[in-house]
Design brief:
Blueprint lengths: L1 E2 L6 E6 L5 E6 L5 E4 L3 H4 L4 E6 L6 E3 L7 H9 L12 H30 L8 H26 L7 H21 L7 H30 L5 H30 L3 H25 L7 H14 L5 H7 L11 E4 L3 H4 L3 H8 L6 E5 L4 E6 L4 H17 L1 H10 L20
Parallel strand pairs: 7-9
Antiparallel strand pairs: 1-2, 2-3, 3-4, 4-5, 5-6, 8-9
Helix pairs in contact: 3-5, 3-7, 3-8, 4-6, 5-6, 5-8, 9-13, 13-14
Length: 420
């Protein structure tokens, strides 16, 4: 709590861990009058009277004091303590995420209508048994695909959450397009919807995994559960709005396949654009391979360390699914070398707690008796440094003593020579 002497009207102000501050004034009846929550984000004006004992820092609205109706509505859909309990990029991301969810809901209704039409709903000649068998085959294919994809790629989505998030939504659009086209080719209907459901199950795995990673990034007060729950409430509200609009839209386009397809393409374009803006709004402070490479490249070219916002804006979103760095940690010694001469050459003059070997496929193999996070970081650092500078430049920087502390203030770093 910091007391303010220069302003007669403002008694004091309080500042939170996020840097947000709000002031307190004296009301006519002697109570404290605080600036409204969310004023910085939503442009609320005025103040409300508060007394100790409530939520969010100990304030409770005094009886008879008017609270803006929008504040009550936002409290249902925003995490407690917003905006200080979430990351600064929470609001722009959620707004664009709501737009893409609304567009996806409308596209999904068109796809569902096409699938039901292809199965035979409304057709007196359709067989119930055939429709049931088709639906079971479709679901079984998706379940198997979900298990295989989670085993294959589950551990690779944390560091590239933005790329996989965008990939999942684009794949979802492809799956819905297949469902819309399925009734046009009745002979391949079962195979088409099986492929579509397989893609949707992959979308479910990738979307759920990246949503968890982004929730961890957004939660700033150990409130992952609250952030996740309110995200679910926002998504439910958007889906409900999409459902209501779909009830009005489907009777207008169901009898005209070309109009239905045109609406789908428009909604798909909106969906992809909103997804792109959503992931671009994210400012993730941790370093993955792509952001670390950008930071190193920028430092070597200009002698400056990129901030999180700049690095995230420069990070490619359409690539990065397959890391260029193939790294194997904790490899048994017999897989690294098979002769005494090679082993002696590896350990000669070696002071680090690990052995590092490059094989012909450019895979790094690291052998350690006691793995540490620092040594693992050094292995990745030197690989990426070689990728962005070349072998000669890497040796030059190594002689000058460039270490992993280059991004810390006060660390001695070599002067860049201006060459990329």
């Amino acid at each position: 709590m910091a007391y303010v002497a220069r302003s007669e009207a403002q008694l004091c102000s309080e500042q939170f861990g996020s840097g947000t501050a709000r002031g307190c004034r004296a009301a006519a009846d002697g109570t404290l009058q605080w600036e409204a929550w969310g004023r910085r984000w939503w442009g609320f004006s005025g103040a409300f009277t508060a007394k100790p004992g409530g939520r969010d820092g100990g304030e409770r609205v005094a009886p008879g004091t008017a609270v803006p109706p929008l504040s009550r509505l936002l409290a249902v859909f925003l995490p407690q303590g917003f905006p200080d309990s979430v990351s600064p990029d929470y609001l722009p991301y959620q707004l664009w995420d709501s737009v893409q969810a609304f567009a996806s809901s409308l596209s999904g209704s068109l796809a569902t209508h096409a699938v039901l039409l292809g199965i035979g709903v409304g057709d007196a000649k359709a067989s119930v048994s055939a429709a049931t068998a088709t639906w079971l085959v479709k679901d079984s294919t998706g379940m198997l695909g979900r298990i295989i994809f989670a085993w294959w790629m589950g551990s690779k989505m944390d560091c590239n959450a933005k790329q996989w998030r965008l990939f999942a939504d684009i794949l979802n659009d492809v799956a819905m397009f297949l469902e819309i086209m399925a009734p046009i080719f009745p002979i391949c209907f079962t195979m088409t919807i099986c492929i579509s459901n397989l893609a949707k199950c992959i979308v479910g795995v990738a979307g759920g995994a990246t949503r968890a990673a982004l929730t961890m990034h957004q939660a700033r007060r150990n409130n992952m559960a609250d952030v996740s729950a309110k995200d679910g409430s926002q998504e439910t509200l958007v889906s409900l709005a999409g459902l209501l609009v779909s009830l009005l839209m489907l009777p207008l386009v169901s009898d005209c396949p070309s109009l239905s397809l045109g609406c789908f393409f428009f909604l798909t374009a909106l969906h992809i654009y909103a997804n792109y803006r959503a992931v671009r709004a994210l400012v993730i402070e941790t370093l993955n391979e792509g952001r670390l490479w950008l930071v190193l490249k920028h430092f070597l070219q200009r002698g400056e360390v990129l901030g999180p916002a700049s690095a995230n804006q420069m990070e490619p979103l359409w690539t990065g699914f397959w890391p260029s760095l193939s790294l194997s940690l904790g490899v048994p010694l017999h897989r690294v070398t098979s002769s005494v001469f090679e082993l002696q050459k590896l350990v000669e003059g070696h002071q680090e707690p690990y052995l590092l070997r490059w094989d012909q496929s450019q895979t790094i193999k690291d052998v350690q008796n006691k793995p540490t996070s620092g040594s693992c970081s050094e292995v990745v650092f030197w690989k990426l440094l070689g990728r962005s500078t070349g072998e000669q430049r890497e040796m030059k920087l190594e002689r000058k003593g460039l270490s992993l502390g280059l991004s810390r203030p006060g660390t001695g770093c070599p002067e860049p020579d201006g060459r990329p």
